[in-house]
Amino acid sequence: MEYAAGLCLELGFDGVDINMGCPDRSIEKQGCGAAMIKNPAKAKEIIQAAKRGARMGRVDGIPVSVKTRVGYYQNQLEEWLPAILAEAPAAVTIHARTRQELSKVPADWERIRRAVMIRDELSVDTLIIGNGDVLSLADAHHKAKTYGVDGVMVGRALFGNPWFFNPSKSLPVHLTALPTHGVNRDSITAVKEEEVGVEFVSIPERLRVLVERTRLFVELLPFKNFSIMKKHYKAYVNSFAGAADLRIKLMEADSPLEVEQLVEEYLSAVNINGQ
Ligand SMILES: Cc1cc2nc3c(=O)[nH]c(=O)nc-3n(C[C@H](O)[C@H](O)[C@H](O)COP(=O)(O)O)c2cc1C
């Protein structure tokens, strides 16, 4: 970690974020990701090593932060968070679920409120960033204010939604990727679309951004397999007439040109061209 953090510094990155929350078995098998929660002593050593490599706290250094969950099988914030905070990372992002919960239950932001209190009780400078079920930019602001966090991290709501950070334009909340398991959306956000007063993205715009993104994928990541891009199509092509058919056709396409042709065919067939 010391060497890797040093490389990040040398290569000009702005910081190093250590992932202590990933539930992927292949990562956990190595003792990494969420498995770190089971081994606070090792986690502390890892943070120390990264801080040395990143020269955190020195004028020529960069910050080291940690991203983690509230616990492994159950909520362990009371022990786990102080252990990390003892190493004074620049920030800790708390995903408000345990490893066992994966993303299958609503994120409990009261746990994040408690994380802020623990940080305050310990009088450390570490920033607390909340994560879990943030649906929109307005929702992010609302949660930041309600729970007193220093920042908010967004995950799945970005799928198929590069408009997320545009305050005046967005996908209707029911089109974003959350939640996955039949949770009532009204119970996880206090901010309703109508209150936000945003302009909703039209279907032609969604589809043309998908084409642009496909083009950029090939241009900027030529070494990646094209099938990786296809995984994202469902996030753009859903909840409108003919979406399922179009998706099936897109899965057969092998180039940005073919994707563009299919999209234009669809738009002229349904006679919506938009801008
Ligand atoms: C497909 C996928 C890949 C992810 N990869 C990472 C990752 O590489 N690093 C990380 O810190 N979190 C990763 N996460 C977790 C998210 O950052 C986030 O903690 C989680 O999705 C909960 O936030 P959400 O409810 O806003 O989606 C990933 C999540 C998903 C669904």
Can you describe what's shown?
By secondary structure, this protein is of the alpha/beta class. Helix 1 (2-10) runs parallel beside helix 3 (40-54), helix 4 crosses helix 5 (109-122) and helix 8 runs antiparallel to helix 12. The chain is built from twelve helices and seven strands. The strands form two sheets. It has a five-stranded parallel β-sheet. The chain is globular and about 60 Å long. It folds into two domains: 2-132, TIM Barrel, CATH 3.20.20; 203-270. Strand 4 (127-131), helix 6 and strand 5 form a beta-alpha-beta unit. The structure holds flavin mononucleotide (FMN). Flavin mononucleotide binds at residues 19, 67, 95, 103, 107, 131-134, 154-157. Flavin mononucleotide binds next to loops.
Query: How would the global form be characterised?
Result: globular
Query: What percentage of the residues does DSSP assign to strands (E)?
Result: 5-15%
How do the strands line up in the largest sheet?
1-2-3-4-5
- Distance linking N and C termini: 49 Å
* Structure annotation, total helices: 12
Report the C-alpha radius of gyration, rounded. Answer: 21 Å
Question: Quick one: how many beta strands?
Answer: 7
